[in-house]
Amino acid sequence: MRNPTGEKILITGPTSQVAFPIVRALAADNQVLGLARFSKDGDAARVEALGAKAIRCDLASGELAEVPEDVDLVLNFAVVKSGDFDYDLAANAEGVGLLMSHCRGARAFVHCSSAAVYEGGGHEPRSEGAPLGDNHRFMFPTYSITKIAAEAVVRLGARQWSLPSVIARLSVPYGDNGGWPWYHLMMMKGGVPIPVHSEAPSTFNLLHEDDYIAQIPDLVAAASVPATTVNWAGDAASIEEWTAWLGELTGLPAKLAPTSETIGALELDRARMHELLGETRVRWKDGIRRMVAARNPELLKG
């Protein structure tokens, strides 16, 4: 499917690693509104330089007076990870419900959730019906729980306001705008040990920005009442594999530090995703090579 054109699209979290490339892709042919706190100097200007309009708003406050009610699409990528449960629940869960109520006339609400909602442990790929749990506690204490809460709010909102919605459980996004593999590259550059779970391999799914941008129209088409839930993931690869590949590309050694005090393997089953969104095209080795070339070309060998 082709990206939407001529529509009024509200994108929350527009300065994030994931959403910024989506704003860039959609702003040329649509009226894009970027909603965020814009707490860092220059962030609003970065979004508006792409052709979008910046709207300052903290979803936790529920003060949405500046947000138009007549948007066609809502793409919700906003997330906070302050570690304060009260604030993070207000922003990540309550705020989503208030936003859905405010924009109840939209033709679709796309909510970016996370693979962090799944129960940790083991190497079996998780399907959408797998048990949920608090697997990100070691890295972000509030993240898994508030993401699960947000999903429940989206499910309620879809039914309450007959607002077609889709919950996309995102695995590991990356690309020219960065991502987890890039942070690992910076750790390798600095000689910093990289935690990996002692129950190797630490396998996840890398989803390149080219693929997740291309799948936005399919996510919109998958929105329904009750809400649709789907895994959003690319090639399966382990931290051990992608740091080794980064080492081949750059000559930098990866100092892996096995521990039980980190996130374990969390591979996603992509059967339903392939049915609803299609297959991804960017293979993970090619995507990581492109990432390094875009962000740190000086580190590439040769």
Topology:
Blueprint: E1 8-12, H1 19-27, E2 31-36, H2 43-49, E3 53-56, E4 73-76, H3 85-102, E5 108-114, H4 143-160, E6 165-170, E7 172-175, E8 178-179, H5 180-190, E9 194-197, E10 203-208, H6 209-214, H7 216-222, E11 228-232, E12 235-238, H8 239-250, E13 256-259, H9 271-276, H10 284-295
Helix pairs in contact: 3-4, 5-8, 8-10
Structural key phrases:
single chain, 302 residues, alpha/beta, Rossmann fold, UDP-galactose 4-epimerase, domain 1, 2 domains, 7-stranded parallel sheet, 4-stranded mixed sheet, 10 helices, 13 strands, globular
Summarize the structure.
By secondary structure, the chain is an alpha/beta fold.
Structure in words:
- Helix content is 35%, strand content 20%.
- The protein is an alpha/beta fold and 302 residues long.
- The strands form three sheets. The chain has a seven-stranded parallel β-sheet with strand order 3-2-1-4-5-6-11, sandwiched between helices.
- Helix 4 links the parallel strand 5 (108-114) and strand 6.
